[in-house]
Amino acid sequence: LNLRPVEPADAPAVLDVVRAAFAARPQAGPPPAALAETVESITERIATGGGTVATVGDRVIAVVLTRQAGESSRLERVSVLPEWQRSGVATAVLRETVIGLALAGHQAFASNLLSIPPDRFPKRAVGSVIGLGGFMSGIGGMIMAKSTGLVLDATKGNYTVIFAVCTSVYF
Questions:
Q1: Beta partners for residue 54, in sequence order
Q2: What is the spatial distance between Cα 128 and Cα 141, in angstroms, rounded to a whole number?
Q3: Which residue, 67, 93, 96, 149, is the most exposed by fewest CB within 10 angstroms?
Q4: Distance (Å, rounded) from C-alpha 148 to C-alpha 157?
Q5: Quick one: residue 142, left, alpha or beta (phi over 0 = left, psi -120 to 50 = alpha)?
Q6: 60: nearest Cα among 93, 101, 33, 87
Q7: Any idea what DSSP says for residue 10?
Q8: How far apart are CA 69 and CA 18, in angstroms?
Q9: Is the Cβ–Cβ distance between 16 and 104 less than 8 Å?
Q10: pLDDT at 171 over 70
C-alpha cells in the first residue's frame, strides 16, 4: 500500500474509485451527488483542494479529497474500492490526509510567527532572534521525531497522544 498526494493526472482513476464506492452503498434516499461527478469536476476538486490516494502497484484503490472552506479544510469523497473496504485502507488514507492538513496549519502558524521578530526587535537583532528560534526549532524537531517513534511503538500506532501533545505545544 502506497499513500501519496493526489495529482490531476489521477482524476480518471479517482472518478472510478468514487463511483464504485458510492454505487456499492445501500440507497437510503436519492442517489448521492458523488455519482454525478465527472473527470472535469474531479480534476477541479484536485486542483483547488488536493487530497490523498492509496495505490497498490499502479492501481488507485482509495481516495480522500479535500476542499478549502473559508479558513478551514473539509474532507470529501472518502472513497475505497468495494473489494478493499473494511481492510484499514480508509483509516490509513484519512490518517495521512489529516496529518497533512495539520502540517499545513502548522506551516501557516509558523509563517505568521516569523513575522513577529521584525516588528518587536531592532533591525540589528532580527537575524539573531530568528536564528536562535530556528536552532531551538531544530532541537525540538529532533526530540519530537524520537519521541514520536517511541510513542507509536508503545501504543501500537495510535496517534492520539502525539496529536494531544502537538496541540498543547501551541498554548
A1: 3, 62
A2: 20
A3: 149
A4: 10
A5: alpha
A6: 93
A7: G
A8: 21
A9: no
A10: no
In DSSP terms, 74 is beta-bridged to 67
The x, y and z cell numbers of residue 51, run together, are: 487530497
Nearest to 93 by CA among 146, 35, 21: 21
* Collapsed DSSP state (helix, strand, coil) of residue 160: helix
For 15-56, write each residue's pLDDT tens digit: 999 999 998 888 777 778 888 999 999 999 999 989 999 999
Q: How far is CA 164 from CA 110, 146, 160, 170, in A?
A: 19, 16, 6, 11
Q: What is the value of pTM for the model shown?
A: 0.70
DSSP 3-state of 76: strand
12-26 b/e (C-beta count within 10 Å ≥ 16 → b): ebbbbbbbbbbeeee
In DSSP terms, 125 is beta-bridged to none
In sequence order, which ranges of 114-122 are alpha helices (DSSP H)? 116-120
Residue type, 102: A
The beta-strand segments (E) located in the chain are 2-5, 51-56, 59-69, 72-80
27: amino acid identity, one letter: Q
Instruction: Name the grid cell of 24.
Output: 456499492
43 alpha carbon, distance to own chain's centre = 18
